[in-house]
Amino acid sequence: MATQKEIARRAGVSISAVSAVVNGTTHTRMSEETRARIEGIIADLGYVPNDAARALRRQRAGTIAVVVQKVENPIYREMFHGIYDAAEARGWAVVLGDAMWMRSGSHFLARLLGQGSIDGIIVRSEGLIDDEVMRHLRARPAPVIVVEGRHAQDGRWLAIDDAAAGLVATQHLLDLGHRDIEFVGGASWIPTSERYRGYTEAMADAGLEPRPANRSGFGSSAGAEGFAAILASGRRPTGIVVNNVLSAVGTLNAALDAGVRVPDDLSLIAIHDAEVADDLRPPLATVKMPMAELGARAVEAIAAVLAGAPTRFGLVDSPAPVLIPRASTARPPAVPAPWWTAV
């Protein structure tokens, strides 16, 4: 099996030069011609670094863990892409786990807490994990980066700009001419509160009275419950901002079941984008969030903490939330639809 010593001999360079190329180090001075020659020999010999030996030398495992709630949630797809791309660029492996398995005595938790087995942990919202478990995690040397937390005890948190997303979604309906707009979905925790704050700011800027948030929870059933609550209240909005795209699936279905034509009678827009939005009928307007950038920044934060380098925590506000217009929104009806006054 090829070794760095053999590569160095064939290239006529020092072993340290070969190591620099293998590890992607840029501070070692060498010409582009020399670097290309080393890379060519590495390819010819089929050299594969011994990751275990490298980890021992660096006292690093080369593995990070990512913990979210319901890994099947399509909202995480772009965040996972950002995490995996950034980890791959550093030669790191990723262990993915569901928060429901994060309990004392679990094998997954034991793996995370294993001596030197994990270099860093990305947790989707600290509130999803038991306080005792979080204390165990923070007691280990591996840095814990909270995404969508905003209240991490050590300040190591990153979050998308949920307030800006709520504002973009509401402003889209306002620009279409809607004035009677509701906010549906979510719970009384920070992301939902921030999205609702964006909604209230947009409404207030337009000189309109915001409606109380209908915090029906998450998922399609919660979206349906939110729409049912609006019907029961007697309120008849022409537009609804839904806290997330999965809840909006339930809101849309409940509206259609009630005989509401979307968007002729009612416009719907959701925060977060996912492939399912295009599959609905009508396709659902959404606000796309920088989830890939959030994931990549979390990996970069782990790398910076491990290296003792400064890093930025707080909001990931670039790129800004982007409106994805689709057929679920339109101008409000000139007169209330017959079903709307009859229900």
TrEMBL record:
Ranges for domain HTH lacI-type come to 2-58
Could you identify this protein by its name?
LacI family DNA-binding transcriptional regulator
Asked if the record carries the keyword Transferase, the reply is no
Annotated Gene3D superfamilies: 3.40.50.2300, lambda repressor-like DNA-binding domains
Q: Looking at the keywords, is DNA damage present?
A: no
The entry lists its GO molecular-function terms as: DNA binding
Q: Which organism is it from?
A: Occultella gossypii
> InterPro entries from the entry?
HTH_LacI, LacI/GalR-like_sensor, Lambda_DNA-bd_dom_sf, Peripla_BP_I
Which controlled-vocabulary keywords does the entry list?
DNA-binding, Transcription, Transcription regulation
